[in-house]
Amino acid sequence: MENILAVNLLQQVFGTRNPTYALDNVSFNMPATPSILNLVGESGSGKSTIARIILGLLHPTKGSVFYKDTDIFTKEPRWQKQFRREVQVVFQNPYSVYNPVYRVDRVLMKPIQKFKLASGKAVANEMILASLKAVDMRPEDVLGKYPHQLSGGQRQRLMLARLHLISAQLIIADEAISMIDAAGRVSFLNILLDFRDRLGISTLYITHDLSTAKYLGGEIIVLYKGRIVERGETKSVTGSPLHPYSQLLVQCVPVPNPKQRWKEPLTDSGELSVYRTPKRDRCLFAERCPKVMDICWNSRPPLQKPAASGPDARGEVACHLYQPHGN
Amino acid sequence: MTPIMQIRDLSVGYASRRAVGLAVTSVNLDVEKGEILGVVGESGCGKTTLAVALLGLIESPGVIQSGSVQLRLADDKLVDLVGLAPRPLRQIRWKEIAYIPQGSMSALNPVLRVRQQMTDTLVQHGLSKAEAIERARWALNLVSLDAAVLDKYPHELSGGMNQRVAIATAVTMQPAILVADEPTTALDVVTQRSILQELVKIRDQFGTTIIVISHDMGVMAQVVDRMAVMYAGRIAELGLVLNIFDAPLHPYTQKLIGSIPKDTGQHLEGLEGEAPSLWAYPPGCRFHPRCSLATAICREQTPELREIISGQYAACHHCD
């Protein structure tokens, strides 16, 4: 097994008369060695669609997803059960994933029953305590409580305890910390790093927030309107982005330092019209791009290594500026 | 300089059958004319309750327990917004102090066109229909929106556009104070930056005083002049944003600034523990159970917000 996850040429089209390409030929892999992959994009970039497809909640129009070399849409029930156990999600809203009428213990008890993880009540309790410890939670703070008695940060961390309990191998974290407080965010991210290093759990970290992606490190994919515009090492992409869209993103991160305030006013005012893309063989960023050229309107730039990069460079960019014929 | 708004000993709570839980406790704050003041804190720290109280919009089960919010009008007269009768309050709202609500997507009425939402308040304030539409156009233009937006429904607009409509609606009457509650939460970074720029532009152009409520330290660092850090209903620290980021005084502020993710491989500690619920505040300093500096006095006495260095205030027994 070379990759834990392989996403091949995913295409997701919504609507028939006015088709919207939520995803347009997106491919990427996550290696078998534990890793964190950041998937960054604004709302409407298709990042949540990717999460839903990987979880098997949505059938893509075209393309395939392989988990440990097996197509995730295979019908084999035993494999499906294993897949549903090993690939787990942490959603954005920690308020809507819990059933308010049950105590939170239930989200830990249920998987133990469902996957028959423990031989008896005592073992089950032992496991729960171990998992809470893995996410730095004290049992007396959470067990026996109802969801409304916990903070957002606690609820998200409890979801991680659940993943630990069922020995998940791949976590899809879809904007998992955007609704928790600043102070709790770092703890959540630290757990993801700890899970990777200590337990070998990989994470696909989906976010719109470059600064948290930067904290996690690893590799990054920048999506724009359903297409990958740039990918590479998180450090180099956030440090010296190549694609004009990635550059714009990096410029717009509110740096938490009042001495590094934004200087020139931003000319791009975000998305001021609801977009329709009738023409697909072009760069979709063309209308916002400060460096737009004629070719950008007429040909879709392929995702490839920039012409000027050395043989060791791992980054890839989909922009005509960096194509051999570009400049 | 005389402050445009003086908040004195303001306590706002929520009443249950048995007790009142104070979401905002004894807040004292002077808002200077023309400044951008940030109010930052975790969810549940009382920042939205404070904003709503400033507009006189506290409704049952919310109650204003004590205190006053003195607003200085253009003719230098002071009015106390607390306890003002609904009618005069309606006259002041929008004209003197306007609100940009959290989550404009849900604040706008989905079945009304933007035109109607924007002109309703203006007509209420005595403008003619034609004048109101003229104003609305002017305000939309101010936030870089095309007047064609007037004929759209909220669902036809993107999140960023809706937020601009909310800002435009708030500035139509050119209020002296704008209260923006989480103006950019749930927007992507590019839109966030351009919305924040619009707010700064409004201040620079009209001298509007703006109170920005946010949980995002990045937003604070980028746009506000002064910042009030709230913890569990009280102001923990107050001062120029430059000074606070440079040398935070309160242990809570220190933790808050210290836990901002920056670079790869730089390990940060989060803030352990949870903020207390408004039904069970600990005695003394409300931060003491999570504070590494806590001593006996912190468990017994509530620290007052006091000036530690010129212009920088903190409510902590150990800040000297």
Percent helix of chain B: 25-40%
SSE class of chain A: alpha/beta
Give the C-level CATH assignment of the largest domain in chain B. Alpha Beta
Count of spatially separate domains of chain B:
2
Q: Radius of gyration of chain A over alpha carbons?
A: 21 Å
* Contiguous uncertain segments of 5+ residues of chain A: none
The dominant shape of chain B is globular
- Most residues in contact: chain pair: A-B, 52 and 53 residues
Give Rg of chain B in angstroms. 20 Å
How much of the polypeptide of chain B forms β-strand, as a percent range?
15-25%
Helix content of chain A: 25-40%
CATH architectural grouping of the largest domain in chain B? 3-Layer(aba) Sandwich
Strand-pairing-aware structural class of chain B: alpha/beta
Question: How widely separated are the two ends of chain A?
Answer: 40 Å
Number of strands of chain B: 12
State the strand order across the main sheet of chain A. Answer: 6-7-8-3-9-10-11
Main sheet overview of chain A = 7 strands, mixed
Global morphology of chain A: globular
Query: End-to-end span of chain B in angstroms?
Result: 27 Å
Strand order of the largest sheet of chain B: 6-7-8-3-9-10-12-11
Task: Summarize the structure in words.
The complex is a heterodimer of chains A (327) and B (320). With 327 residues, chain A is an alpha/beta fold. Chain A is 31% helix and 20% strand. Chain A is built from 10 helices and 11 strands. The two termini of chain A are 40 Å apart. The model of chain A has no long low-confidence stretch (mean pLDDT 90). In chain B, the strands form 2 sheets. Chain B has an 8-stranded mixed sheet with strand order 6-7-8-3-9-10-12-11, with helices on both faces. In chain B, strands 2-1-4-5 form a 4-stranded antiparallel sheet. The model of chain B has no long low-confidence stretch (mean pLDDT 91). Helices cover 32% and strands 24% of the residues of chain B. Chain B has helices spanning 47-54, 86-92, 104-107, 114-124, 129-142, 159-171, 189-206, 217-223, 241-246, 251-258, 296-300; strands spanning 5-15, 20-31, 36-40, 62-72, 78-80, 97-100, 177-181, 209-214, 226-231, 234-240, 306-309, 312-314. Chain B has 2 domains: 3-96 and 176-314, P-loop containing nucleotide triphosphate hydrolases (Rossmann fold, 3-Layer(aba) Sandwich), CATH 3.40.50.300; 104-174, no CATH class. The chains are: A alpha/beta (327), B alpha/beta (320). At the A-B interface, α6, α7, α8 and α10 of A face α6, α7, α8, α9 and α10 of B.
